[in-house]
Every structure is written in structure tokens, then in C-alpha cells.
Amino acid sequence: MASQTGRTYNDAIDALNSLQTPYATIEARRKAGVRPDAASIAEMQVYLRRIGYAPSDLDRLNIVHVAGTKGKGSTCAFAASILAQHQKTRGAPRKIGLFTSPHLIAVRERIRVDGAPVSEDLFARYFFDVWDRLARAEETEGEVVVDRRLGLPMPTRPIYARYLTLMSYHVYLQERVDVAVYETGIGGEYDATNIVERPVASGISTLGIDHVFALGDTVEKIAWHKAGIIKPGSAAFTIDQVSGAANVLQERAKEKGVSLKVLDVDSRLEGVNVRPDALFQKKNASLGIALAEAALQKIEPTFERNASTLPREFVDGIEQVVWRGRCEVKAEGPIIWHIDGAHTVDSLKMASKWFAGECASKSGPEALIFNQQGREEAVNFLEGILSTLKSHGQGTFEHVVFCTNVTYADTGYKRDFVNHQYDPDAIKALTAQHAFAEKWSSLDPSAKVVVLPTIEDAINHVRGLSKTLGAGETVQGLITGSLHLVGGALGILEGADAL
Ligand SMILES: Nc1ncnc2c1ncn2[C@@H]1O[C@H](COP(=O)(O)OP(=O)(O)OP(=O)(O)O)[C@@H](O)[C@H]1O
Ligand SMILES: [Mg+2]
Ligand SMILES: [Mg+2]
């Protein structure tokens, strides 16, 4: 039925893709120094009203809000997974929302209800509800100028990620979600998710350097943005941070009259199987626990925190959490794929350390598939990967492949991955990939480095290496550098409908 009206899931994704800011506009803004600011929030408030909601409606969602440079998604996944286990045994929360970004395999995974991505039909319905409401509101109200810097009227609809954020509120309010876990997109203060005024709790995961153009080039400036999700009257948690960042978080919390609780690794995690078994993940889990506890305290008057042991549901939630594309291992015959969406200096070191540990007991060649599109500084991330590997007793990669984020050799991007935000000429010419290759060859002249146009080509190249294996050997493949790369790779390894 939906197809007759031209309003299928695919139609929604096509319409959504039309809301991407084209590369040329991004460049022009960058040159003019236009950054997200308070106007971005004012606009989101107008859009929310135009789709029929007041900011206070969001209170019904009991939002758990998470910002941070790394570990946001994992923290959110832990919190949501704990809540899901609690729901299973105790019937509360009634319905759990989980809003994350970016997506790995399909856009609709960004908006989950009770663990599952919203179905294609529901996604299409809610997507076009919002689409139509925004157009109608503009027709009746006329154009609104919120952005005084540019003096331009607000576009009819917000851009891609902001549109999905707006839509998520519609989905969760309609579906009567009573706890919604929200990952910020970029930063916090001016992020589209920050129109929530009374979250149940805010959590700030590990801070570091990323999104320098939007957020600033020091960890202090970045911390200022992230602290923007701390709200008067709501609980706030973080884990230990580098000192500059920690101070800014505390100052900002104090200004708002909030006592920001700094969590150690939760001692109740002793004996709990946190995967991967790494400090960073235990920090993410600790934050997830505190956030879930805060949510349960709000919605379930009888819930009592037990300071010495974790309830069974919490342990199950942590041990059974699924967060795809992060520290994932997949065996494919003689190839063992290690898949991790790390894309900052620190997280790439973390991923390399994890890979080195996984390879310690294996024999056979190691192969890297890497990309990061549209960020020139990524060429400097390569050194960290190599030195981490070496310092953890692994040699180096025998084979290194750089490819674009284009999924398939024949058909190009999967619809959910169409991206207008990168320089199309650079993708065609494999400019970034050649720069990576040159850098890697200078760091490790013995590596066999190749540049290939698509993810599919890169995977097939590594598959080809298994033909020359000796007895008992496997190829250890690491796919990292970009969540788009990792999502495309999972799609290829698992079939196009992988989710
Ligand atoms: N607390 C942490 N500190 C450092 N690195 C981390 C941390 N948590 C996760 N990572 C690394 O970053 C990768 C991405 O984790 P995750 O998806 O939780 O982060 P995110 O903050 O949501 O990142 P994104 O910018 O992709 O949204 C992980 O696979 C892991 O390699
Ligand atoms: Mg990020
Ligand atoms: Mg994320």
C-alpha cells in the first residue's frame, strides 16, 4: 500500500538524503567560520512546535542523555540493555527508546524501540508525518528567521541528523516510550538532542579531541560543549577525565547548580563479563549503570540501588549487550575479521591494542583495511595504529588496503549510505586513500600497500590472501577507521539485509 503512495522506506531514505548539506555548502560555511550556535537550538524548538509538541512533552520520555568524545554509543547501549532486562523481569520501563548515531547498516537503526530498529513501515509513516507537518506549518505560519547571523529564514526542514532527531521525538511520543536513551550527535550545548530541558540524567563519557571545527581544538573547549547537556534539577555523571576537561565539566555543572558525580569503575562489576575486557569499556559500563539506576529511580518508586551488588538484571544487561561494529570478531573460513568503528586518534589506538591482543595466539598474515573520508588529519592517525601494534608485541600488517566508503564495486553506495557531504572528485580520484598509502609506506616500507575504490574490492582483496596460507594459519583482518566503512563491510560480510 505504501508503495502506491510513493511513501515507502526507500522513498523516506531518498527524501532524507536530500536533506544532507552538499559538500560545496559545507566548504563555504567552513571558510566563513559558521559553526553551530544557540540559533541551532532555537530552530530545533521551532521545528518541534511545528510538528505538534511542546518542550515539556519531552518530559514524558524520561530522557537519559549522553555526550562525550568516545564511548557515547556504548554507554547508551549498556544503559538501554540494562533497562531492557529490567523490563523483562519487572515490567518497567513500559517501552524503551534508544537513539544513536551514526547508523551502521541502515538509517532506521538510529531509532530503536525496545531494542529493535523501528520497522521500515513505521519509519516511513513517521518520517512522512514529520515531513508533511513541517511543510504545512510553514505554509500557515510563513517563514521564520531565527538565525540572526545569516539573517536567512529557517529552511522548511532541518538537515539530516537534526531531522532524524526531530523525528525520533515523534516516534517515541507516539509509541509511548517511557524511558528514552539519547546519544548526542556532535558536542552537546548546541546539539539537536539538547532541546530536552528535564532529562532524567545526563552522562558524559570519555573526552578527547574530535570535531575540532565545530567544537574547538582543546579538550577544555570540547568539554565546555559536552557539559551543555547537564541540566539544572537533573542528575549528572561522568567518569575520570584528563584534568583540563574535568575542571571545565565541574565549573559548568556548578554554574547550573548541579553536583556532577565522577564515577570510578563500578566495583560491582567484579566478576561481570564486560566485553571487550578493557578499562575503557568498564568505564562505559559504569556510566551506563549509573544512568540506568537514575532512570529506574525516577519511573519506579520502589527501585532501590544496591551499593554492594548489581541486581541480576543489571549483570545480564551488561553481559548481553549488543553494540555492533565495535570490537567485533567474525570468522569467515580461514579469515578472522576484526571490526571496529574507531575514528579518532585515541579510539584507534584502543582498537589496535584490542586487535593485537586478539592476534597474539594466531599465526598467519595480518591485514588492515582502513578509511576515513573527508578528514585530512586522518593521515596522522596511521602512525598511532602502527606504533600501538608494535608496542603490543605484534609485528606489523603484511597487507594494508585503503579504500573509499563506497560499498559495492558495481552498484556504488547502498541507499542508506549515500553521502553528499564529501568531495565527489576526491572520492573518484582516491585522493585521501593515496595519501594514506604514501604515509603507510613511509612508516613501514615492508608492507604491501594497495589502494582500491570500494569496500567490496578491499574485502575481496583480503579474502584472496587466504589462498596462500600454510597449515593452521588464518588471515587476521582488521577493518577500522570509520563507522561507514565498518557498516558497509558488515553489510557485505552478512548480506545486504544485515541488521
Ligand atoms: N571510553 C572510551 N575511550 C576511548 N575509546 C573508546 C571508549 N569507548 C569506546 N571507544 C572506542 O571507540 C569506538 C566507538 O565507540 P562508541 O560507538 O561507543 O563511541 P561513540 O562516542 O558513540 O563514537 P561516534 O563518534 O562513532 O558516535 C569503540 O569501538 C572503541 O574502539
Ligand atoms: Mg564522533
Ligand atoms: Mg556513536
UniProtKB/TrEMBL annotation:
PROSITE patterns: FOLYLPOLYGLU_SYNT_2. InterPro entries: Folylpolyglutamate_synth (IPR001645), Folylpolyglutamate_synth_CS (IPR018109), Folylpolyglutamate_synth_euk (IPR023600), Mur-like_cat_sf (IPR036565), Mur_ligase_C_dom_sf (IPR036615). It is found in: Cytoplasm; Mitochondrion inner membrane; Mitochondrion matrix. ATP binds at R326, D340. Its cofactor is a monovalent cation. A monovalent cation. Pathway: Cofactor biosynthesis; tetrahydrofolylpolyglutamate biosynthesis. Mg(2+) binds at S101, E183, H211. It catalyses: (6S)-5,6,7,8-tetrahydrofolyl-(gamma-L-Glu)(n) + L-glutamate + ATP = (6S)-5,6,7,8-tetrahydrofolyl-(gamma-L-Glu)(n+1) + ADP + phosphate + H(+). Keywords: ATP-binding, Cytoplasm, Ligase, Magnesium, Membrane, Metal-binding, Mitochondrion, Mitochondrion inner membrane, Nucleotide-binding, One-carbon metabolism. Transmembrane segments: none annotated. It is an enzyme of class 6 (ligase). One of its GO terms (biological process) is one-carbon metabolic process. One of its GO terms (cellular component) is cytosol. It comes from the Eukaryota. One of its GO terms (molecular function) is ATP binding. Its EC number is 6.3.2.17. Belongs to the folylpolyglutamate synthase family. Catalyzes conversion of folates to polyglutamate derivatives allowing concentration of folate compounds in the cell and the intracellular retention of these cofactors, which are important substrates for most of the folate-dependent enzymes that are involved in one-carbon transfer reactions involved in purine, pyrimidine and amino acid synthesis. PANTHER family: FOLYLPOLYGLUTAMATE SYNTHASE, MITOCHONDRIAL (PTHR11136:SF5), FOLYLPOLYGLUTAMATE SYNTHASE-RELATED (PTHR11136). This is Folylpolyglutamate synthase.
